[in-house]
């Protein structure tokens, strides 16, 4: 097995095209490659395209992968707070944590893709209300997970009310599975991360913007009296890598992008070029990198990243 940096993770978007069997094969390749984690998006509708082969539920697939893998961390980047009520979400994530032996992480966001809500009959409140619900969900989920066995949890909020909950099941990881907050909001998002998150993620932004957002989050931590070093910082970046131009062009075309566009806005090119771009993200503070791979059928891509990209980041 190839040994890679502790915080290098594969991130997939199965709503763009991916069955459970393909997810399983990619997760196994990720584990065999020595990566730290295998994470997936939580969407019910393709972003563009015809929507085939159709959605896979994030937590249903992660539960299955929890039993089919042994070492990799598993989680969402990110679950939408509009999709699930906070109590049932706390239950399912805790159960998947048990099923995995304590390898689960929960990324949770306010939700943004209105078309998928319309397509599947999911209410989609205005942004202000969605963010309020997100803040409450974090409070409830943490409260349920940290309530001692035998005691009860209650919550009286603007959007949710819990009465006399036994707060079970209990996750394996204590005090709770890591919580991930992400986004580029300049004020509310950094403050929320400083209060509740174990990790803060900036997805798909230029390196200078990523560094500036990390600095906002550090300041928010200081303003709340939290040591900024206790908050893990991460970034997500699309990756398209190959050792020859023909394969690189084929991999770009498979995800509907041009090589030129990927070189400008992602981490693309030879292994050395990809290492250089990823190193720029680590230089501004990203201690964890999520390598977004959009073609779930290309397992050789995962192998190449493990063998020729990851060693360059040590």
Explain what you see.
- The protein has 314 residues and is α/β, with parallel strands linked by helices.
- Helix 2 links the parallel strand 2 (37-40) and strand 3.
- Mean pLDDT is 96; it is low at 1-5.
- It has an eight-stranded parallel barrel with strand order 1-2-3-5-8-9-10-12, surrounded by ten helices.
- Helix content is 42%, strand content 18%.
- The chain has a single domain, classed as TIM Barrel.
Identify the notable features of this structure and list them briefly.
disordered N terminus; alpha/beta; eight-stranded parallel β-barrel; 314 residues; TIM Barrel; 11 helices
Q: What CATH architecture label applies?
A: Alpha-Beta Barrel
Biggest sheet overview: 8 strands, parallel, barrel
Mind telling me the CATH class?
Answer: Alpha Beta
Mean pLDDT: 96
Shape: globular
Task: Work out the helicity level.
Answer: 40-55%
Taking the alpha carbons of the first and last residues, their distance comes to: 16 Å
Please identify the structural class as seen in this structure: alpha/beta
Rg measurement, Å: 19 Å
Sheet-strand content, in percent, reads: 15-25%
Number of strands: 12
């Amino acid at each position: 097995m190839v040994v890679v940096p502790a915080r290098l993770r594969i991130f997939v978007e199965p709503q763009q095209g991916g069955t459970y069997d393909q997810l399983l094969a990619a997760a196994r390749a990720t584990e065999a490659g020595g990566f730290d984690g295998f994470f997936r998006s939580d969407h019910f509708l393709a972003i563009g395209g015809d929507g085939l082969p159709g959605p896979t539920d994030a937590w249903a697939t992660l539960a299955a992968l929890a039993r089919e893998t042994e070492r990799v961390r598993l989680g969402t980047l990110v679950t939408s707070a509009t999709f699930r009520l906070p109590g049932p979400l706390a239950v399912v994530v805790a159960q998947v944590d048990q099923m995995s032996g304590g390898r689960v992480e929960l990324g949770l966001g306010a939700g943004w893709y209105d078309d998928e809500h319309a397509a599947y009959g999911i209410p989609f409140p205005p942004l202000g209300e969605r963010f309020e619900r997100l803040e409450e969900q974090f409070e409830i989920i943490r409260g349920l997970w940290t309530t001692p066995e035998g005691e009860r949890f209650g919550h009286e909020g603007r959007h949710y009310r819990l009465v006399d909950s036994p707060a079970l099941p209990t996750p394996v990881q204590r005090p709770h599975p890591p919580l991930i907050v992400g986004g580029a909001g300049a004020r509310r998002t950094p403050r929320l991360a400083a209060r509740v998150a174990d990790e803060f993620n900036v997805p798909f932004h230029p390196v200078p913007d990523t560094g500036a957002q990390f600095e906002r989050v550090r300041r928010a931590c200081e303003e709340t009296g939290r040591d900024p070093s206790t908050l893990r910082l991460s970034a997500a970046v699309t990756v398209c890598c190959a050792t020859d131009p023909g394969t690189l062009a084929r991999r770009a075309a498979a995800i509907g992008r041009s090589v030129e566009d990927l070189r400008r806005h992602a981490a693309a090119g030879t292994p050395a070029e990809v290492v250089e771009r990823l190193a720029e993200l680590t230089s501004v503070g990203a201690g964890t990198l999520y390598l977004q791979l959009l073609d779930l059928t290309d397992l050789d891509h995962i192998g190449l990243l493990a063998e020729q990209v990851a060693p360059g980041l040590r």
